[in-house]
Give the backbone structure.
Amino acid sequence: MIGTVLDKYEILQKVGEGGMATVYRGRHLTLGREVAIKVLHPHLSSSTRNRQRFAREARAIEHLDHANILRIFDYSGVESEDCYIVTEYIDGLTLQEFMDQYGRIPSEAAALIGYYLADALEYAHDRGIVHRDLKPENVMLRKDGTLKLMDFGIARFLEDSQMTMTGALVGSPAYMSPEHATERDVDARSDLFSLGTVLFYLVSGQLPFTGGNPSVILRNIIDGARPELIEVVPEVSHAMADVVEHLLQTDPLCRYQSTADVKRGLLATMELGGVNPDSETWALHRLITDPDSYRTDLDRHLTGLLLEKGRALLQNGEHLVALRIFNRLLAMDPDNSEVMNLVQGLHTDASRRPVRRVHFATAAAIVGLMGLVLFWFINPNHRSQGNAVSGAGQTGSGPPPVNGAASLEARSSRGTEDPLPAAAQAVLPQPSSPGNGGNDASGGNVAENNRAGDAGNTKRNGATLPDGMAGLAEPTGAPPGNSVHSFPRPSPPKAIKEKAQTLQDATAGREDSRSLQEERDLPATLRVVLDSTTWAEIYVDGEYKGITGRDPVQLSPGEHILLLRNDFSEDEELSFSVAPGEYKVIRGISLKLKPATVIVGRGVLQACVVELDGVRLGTVASLGRRFTLPDPRARHRITYRCPDDILLEYNIEKINAGAVVHMPREP
């Protein structure tokens, strides 16, 4: 078609071709304006009915006028032989092309891209329009830093035309929501799921849902079979990980319910990273035109900022939160001697604490973290893919305003509210269900693995300290970073092994020997993820299997007994079953903290009455000089009412779970 005239547009150059259309650069014959002309393939525009549908969709979206949505100038009429859309011409790369050239994108920069996409989606959703095909190929990055979301309405047109999934017509299956994949009603929350997939891909360089063919990918999407972002990329911002996990919930009711919430979470990611998107330093056009320099400056900035925050948290006694920050720092820079000195100093300080149990648990956390870091960085199979952003780009001609918009703060309709909804909310649990697996987090050439459809079930052995721990002066226990444990593991009760054997025997009795042999040839995979405030050792049928949130467990199909335990919580036991080849995820279990024990000091008379938070417990003698604090993390007031109107009062707070304290303290 090059050199021909389509209606009033001269076709100048072919700029791209996809499964549904060919894109040309053109020029308006009278206005002289450069445009992009997307001409749908003949099999899509061959019938009058399809042309009518296409015109209807074009009319629905032609009035979308937003800085981050590709503007439509014209479209073919019903009588036209070809179906085409005329849009503004973008001189730049698609987001997918940018990823192919420069690799994955740092959390804070990905949050900026995500913010612009969410803002565009919010504008469309407010007008009753759902995109339905959000993916990096449908996002343009103009050289001046403007992001443009395109192809609104195309997916709906294709579905109305009853096209099948056999080609690349309805969009990439990897970015579909579960409800879209199962042909249920699709609303704005479906776009949010796709946005979560895009963000996961930008930050990690790999897709959350993978497989050898579209059917496997869709099965994994429906089942929620994927790794968590922080497992794949230990250096990810925890705020970004929260946003992505919230977006990728299988049940639409468990996701963000509006793009306004997503925008606040992404703003929080940038704010916690000290990145002002309205500054020239962190503007999107600089990432596009000079990605190598952008990444270098961002790494230097984050190293200083996170180090300062970690020091401040240590001074305030918030050791676990500090360790979480140091974990990210060491993932970014494994040779950072300052961080290692602080970690070693924390270990030294912990050894001087008067309570033996506090010393022991903190030492375990420190040794585990250091072991994790050493193991992760000397083992190439557990490294992420390359550097996040590399290669030189073109130098911009000046600092134009990003997307021609005012401050991001002003653009957020509820910017004055709490900017941390994602970081403050625990990821809602979702039911586990069988899936194919296909979660490749093994590193290497991830982009090639994704294109090839790798369906492996490998995961990074590196673990990160969980979110949601702010405010705890002492950890509820930090998981060791490798297979060497810093404290003894008591054997689980004998009854558990016996119960597991009984269940397995019952299963064996219902199957013939050939069927059992086939099942043993297809082991299942179990992954246990607790709430964000704790961790536990995993025992299956009485045998130690690893750490929650980190170690996948290979199991034979059938019935099993799961035991979760750590030094600070009550044991949790439950039964479960797995099918051959199943990838089973058990989420959302909250372990009950062990109560702390208070021993009444020898200076308190036996006849004194003990009160806890105003509630009478009994005399010192009747209590045997000891009582418990059911919630050791809370603030408590202990009162001893003694003869001769002697009143002794003590405040106590933030005691380690399971700890023993003397009150008043013994000299």
Q: What stands out?
A: The chain is about 35% helix and 20% strand. Residues 609 and 619 are 4 Å apart (CA to CA).
